[in-house]
Amino acid sequence: MSELHFMKLQPCPFEEIKSGEKTIELRLFDEKRQKIKVGDVIVFTSLATGEEIRAEVVCLHIFESFEELYRTLPLLKCGYTAQDIDTASPADMELYYSKGEQEKYGVVGIELRLQKQVR
I need a labelling partner for 77 at 20 to 30 A (CA). Which of 22, 31, 62, 83 fits? Predict the structure, then answer.
């Protein structure tokens, strides 16, 4: 049986997931994220508006560091655009997670499939 997980997002990544441009959410693979399994549903909440969207987890890409993840996953599916892909760097994620946290937990690219909004 699938479980529900809850995550907050800044407006830009929220809109990218909502539009289907971003299909891989990057996070620290800490205790909270280690509970996520394929088939589970994540409810993302926009920090700007409180709007919620739901996405099914279709794959978990687990790595030791964002450096390894950036070498492996398609960054255009991770929230980068054609305009900023040339400057994409694993250091971008250090704004959110320290190198120490990355070494302790590892990192994860959570591949998503947006669910239809039911309202």
Answer: 31
The one-character DSSP state at 6 is: E
Counting the structural domains of the chain, the total is 1
pLDDT at 58 over 70: yes
Q: What pLDDT was estimated at residue 55?
A: 97
Taking only the tens place, the pLDDT of each residue in 79-110 is: 999 999 999 999 999 999 999 999 999 999 99
In a domain, 119, yes or no: no
CB–CB of 27/110 below 8 Å? yes
Of 14, 38, 31, 28, nearest to 111 by C-alpha is 38
Nearest to 25 by CA among 53, 52, 61: 61
Structural contact between residues 24 and 112, judged by C-beta atoms closer than 8 angstroms: yes
